[in-house]
UniProtKB/TrEMBL annotation, chain A:
UniProt name for this protein: ABC transporter permease
Primary location group: membrane
Organism annotation: Paracoccus benzoatiresistens
Listed Pfam families: BPD_transp_1, BPD_transp_1_N
Topology with respect to the bilayer: Multi-pass membrane protein
From TrEMBL, chain B:
GO molecular function, one term: ATP binding
Matching NCBIfam families: PRK10419.1, PRK11308.1
Membrane topology of the entry: Peripheral membrane protein
Entry similarity comment: Belongs to the ABC transporter superfamily.
Matches recorded under Pfam families: ABC_tran, oligo_HPY
PROSITE patterns in the cross-refs: ABC_TRANSPORTER_1, ABC_TRANSPORTER_2
Domain of life assignment: Bacteria
Name of the protein described by the UniProt record: Dipeptide ABC transporter ATP-binding protein
Origin species: Paracoccus benzoatiresistens
């Protein structure tokens, strides 16, 4: 177990290092120097040079990378070119929206997908299964912004149960949570549909295994075999998908953030790109990559928790 | 007492079992023997109420005056595991890989007796002790992957007999095991029938296993029982032609040409194949030296894990050596991409599993022509494919078929045709007939003998089954723990084994008593 853990951790560290170097050099290679962008096209060459020097843009690439990475390790992500505020603060503020949103969406997706997947697998080939498969197909096909607009129409405009958009901040937790419910529902729907299908097919495959037959010969009902023996064995592919979905939800919610006027990470990155605020883009992408790597590590831990063959490897 | 009366099963209207009648008496072993597809397993599944979807059963399977075939599913769930236990052929996959062995045995007790986990585990401990897995070496917290095939089969037996059922159904329980492990598991089953007074329904295709185990035996063919009676009377009298064919096939020895003067073809000298494992190292081959003569057929036997397949892999140049060397035709065999193609083309291999060794999306002509990538595809390759098909007893027209259109025996013929097509000097046969029914096996062994005589082939014939190896080999080599412990001509080796391990292997060979034949 320790060996498995330490190997995973080394992989995690190396991935972070490689990713940070890649992110840094790619943004460096993009045409359009941030200094010239800040000063506009009519700037004097001397002013440009002075600003570049002030921003450290005249240093060689490896030095700039080392300085950047060193500062990040101390929590200093630099200052936004556009807003002249510390990037770390900006990202933190946005994460307060995006992280709870992603977690809520994923929790919803799992809460829906688990019973639906189990139900469909138990009725494989029968009407219930066909219905679920059709419904999940629809759930994947529906664009989530359309579903989001539908939710707004029903729950905000007609019923007036929940706000149609905006985020009041965490000073009022109930209002903050309330404003995240509709967006997380909109995000969760296609994810739940994908997850339910993956779980169903993993369960169906597991049900053909010899140990399921053994379990039936012990006197377990089909439902008991499904829950006690098949489910855990079917979890491995589900965990893989879950990890990928979380990573996607963290930054991929940009359309939903726009529909609901949420100050999330996705919108911030989009704005930073259009404004060529490279330092914000760089830092935000790095945070996202770090989150993906951390989630992958957690998924690896979950694999080991599920499968004893990995624990004792 | 469980009694089957005129049990018939049809799947989607197609009859699978017809009028099967059997008495399964307490303290008795009843054997069902026959080839694959004869309905043996279906009979067992019908008793368990675990028939596949679309199956309809008629007739009666009586237990305590109630017909099992008419019981609702909930009632059957209470009977399965409590009154009737079952074990299956494949111990490697029969247990849940994510559950400890203790919990898997305890689950039966908790399910049927409502025991709490602790007392169920205590009882599970007793049952595991009973099947020969003592607590000192086999704690309840072990997972299936930490056990060998034989040990896993013991766990499967423990959970099947946990509640002392009236009937234990054992479907080919030792087919996937070595002879020595097989002998121990069969002993255990016999002891359980004796001590616990349960009835045992033993399903096997192996007549010799049946001879040593069953009190009564029923021979099945195409879903019917064609002959039944006490084991001795069925074995002695063999009234039905099908019984006679099975007997003839299981004792079949292919005609063997006299051993030619041996010019060495393969020379293995002091071969060492070492692996690094979690707890140190493993020497799968620990200084193995072996010569295979041109035109010679060498049988290689030993228990699983003794290094048989590793030896085959290094000879084929699939695994590197850590010491010693291998020569073919005097040229060095090296692993991976370093071996010249013309040297690699001198050897071919046929594996055990005729289902997994072919790409299901390719047609037969493409499958058979694949080895030509070693030699360059000749212009007349289609003719050669046709000739190879004819040679192994198939039709040239089969070239356009896909692999799923063939039976297991036909697939093994195709595997042999594929090996033959570039005219190699050596064919390695790794458990190549182990998965085949006795009659098909006899035909394949004849085919191999004929091809060898026609083409002067050398064989390295690997098997855990000494009785098969004996019939086809000029010389038998016995391996144990990465070393060759004894070698010699088949008659001498089986008749008067010298090494302890060979003696154990020979003693464990199931036999039909001489006086019955």
């Amino acid at each position: 177990m320790l060996r498995y853990l330490s190997r995973r951790m080394i992989v995690m560290g190396l991935s972070l290092l490689a990713a940070s170097a890649l992110i840094f050099s790619v943004t460096e290679l993009v045409p359009g120097d941030p200094a010239s962008f800040m000063l506009g096209t009519g700037a004097q060459p001397e002013t440009l040079a002075a600003l570049r020097q002030q921003m450290g843009l005249d240093q060689p690439l490896p030095l700039r990378y080392a300085a950047w990475a060193g500062a990040i390790l101390q929590g200093d992500f630099g200052t936004s070119f556009t807003y002249r505020t510390p990037v770390a603060g900006m990202i933190l503020e946005r994460l307060q929206v995006s992280l709870p949103l992603a977690v809520m969406a994923l929790a919803l997706a799992v809460a829906v997908a688990l019973p639906v997947g189990l139900y469909a697998a138990a009725r494989r080939g029968r009407a219930g299964d066909g219905l679920v498969m059709a419904a999940t197909q629809l759930g994947i096909a529906l664009p989530n912004f359309w579903f989001a607009m539908l939710l707004v129409l029903v729950f905000a405009v007609k019923l007036r149960w929940l706000p149609a958009g905006g985020f009041p901040g965490w000073s009022d937790p109930a209002a903050a949570l309330g404003s995240l419910i509709l967006p997380s529902l909109a995000l969760a729907l296609p994810q739940a549909a994908i997850l339910a299908r993956v779980l169903r097919s993993a369960l169906v495959e597991t049900q053909g295994q010899d140990y399921i037959r053994t379990a039936r010969a012990k006197g377990l009902t089909t439902g008991q075999t499904l829950r006690r023996h098949a489910l855990r064995n079917a979890l491995i592919p589900v965990l893989t998908i879950l990890g990928m979905q979380f990573s996607f939800l963290l930054a991929g919610a940009i359309i939903i953030e726009n529909v609901f006027y949420l100050p999330g990470l996705g919108r911030m990155i989009f704005q930073a790109i259009t404004q060529r605020d490279l330092i914000v883009v760089q830092s935000a992408v790095l945070v996202l990559v770090a989150a993906v790597i951390a989630v992958t590590f957690l998924v690896d831990l979950a694999y080991a928790a599920v499968d004893p063959r990995l624990r004792r490897a | 007492m469980i009694r089957l009366e005129d049990l018939s099963v049809a799947i989607n209207g197609r009859p699978i079992l017809r009028d099967v009648s059997l008495d399964l008496a307490p303290g008795n072993v009843t054997g069902l023997v026959g080839e694959s597809g004869s309905g043996k397993s279906m009979t067992a599944l019908a008793i368990m109420g675990l028939l596949p979807q679309g199956a309809r059963a008629s007739g009666r399977a009586m237990l305590d005056g109630q017909n099992l075939l008419e019981q609702p599913e909930a009632a059957l769930c209470r009977i399965r595991g409590r009154r009737i236990g079952m074990i299956f052929q494949e111990p490697m996959t029969a247990l849940n890989p994510l559950m400890t062995i203790g919990d898997q045995v305890a689950e039966v007790l908790r399910l049927h007796q409502g025991l709490d986990r602790r007392s169920a585990l205590a009882r599970a401990r007793e049952r595991l002790d009973r099947v020969g897995l003592p607590g000192s070496r086999f704690p309840l917290t072990l997972y299936p992957h930490e056990l060998s095939g034989g040990q896993r089969q013991r766990v499967a037996i423990a959970l099947a007999i946990a509640l002392r059922p009236d009937l234990l159904v054992a479907d080919e329980p030792t087919t996937a095991l070595d002879v020595t492990t097989q002998a121990r598991i069969l002993d255990l089953l016999k002891g359980l029938v004796r001590d616990e007074g349960m009835a045992l329904l033993l399903i096997t295709h192996d007549l010799a296993v049946m001879a040593g185990m069953a009190d009564r035996v029923a021979v099945m063919q195409s879903g019917r029982i064609v002959e039944s009676g006490t084991t001795e009377s069925v074995f002695r009298q063999r009234r039905h032609p099908y019984t006679q064919q099975l007997f003839a096939a299981s004792r079949h020895v292919p005609a063997r040409a006299p051993r030619p003067a041996t010019v060495p073809l393969v020379q293995v000298t002091q071969a060492v194949r070492a692996y690094r494992t979690a707890d140190g190292g493993l020497r799968a081959l620990d200084g193995v030296s072996l010569t295979i003569g041109r035109g010679e057929s060498v049988g290689l036997v030993g228990e699983s894990g003794c290094g048989k397949s590793t030896l085959a892999r290094v000879i084929l140049g699939l695994d590197p050596l850590q010491g010693g060397g291998i020569r073919l035709d005097g040229r060095e065999v090296t692993a991976q991409g370093h071996m010249p193609r013309d040297l690699r083309a001198r050897m071919q291999v046929v594996f055990q599993d005729p289902f997994g060794s072919f790409d299901p999306r390719w047609r037969v002509d493409r499958l058979l022509a694949e080895p030509f990538h070693l030699t360059g595809r000749p212009g007349d390759w289609r003719d050669r494919v046709a000739a190879a098909l004819t040679e192994v007893g198939l039709q040239p027209a089969d070239a356009r078929k896909f692999i799923h259109e063939f039976s297991g025996g036909q697939r093994q013929r195709l595997a042999i045709a594929r090996a033959l097509i570039i005219r190699p000097a050596l064919i390695v046969l790794d458990e190549a007939v182990s998965a085949l029914d006795v009659r098909v096996r006899a035909q394949v062994l004849d085919l191999l003998a004929r091809l060898r005589a026609d083409h002067g082939l050398s064989y390295l014939f690997i098997s855990h089954d000494l009785s098969v190896v004996r019939g086809i080999s000029d010389r038998i080599v016995v391996m144990q723990a990465g070393r060759i412990v004894e070698e010699g001509p088949p008659e001498a080796l089986v008749g008067t084994p010298r090494h302890e391990h060979t003696k154990a292997l020979v003693a464990a060979m199931p036999r039909i008593p001489e006086e019955w034949t």
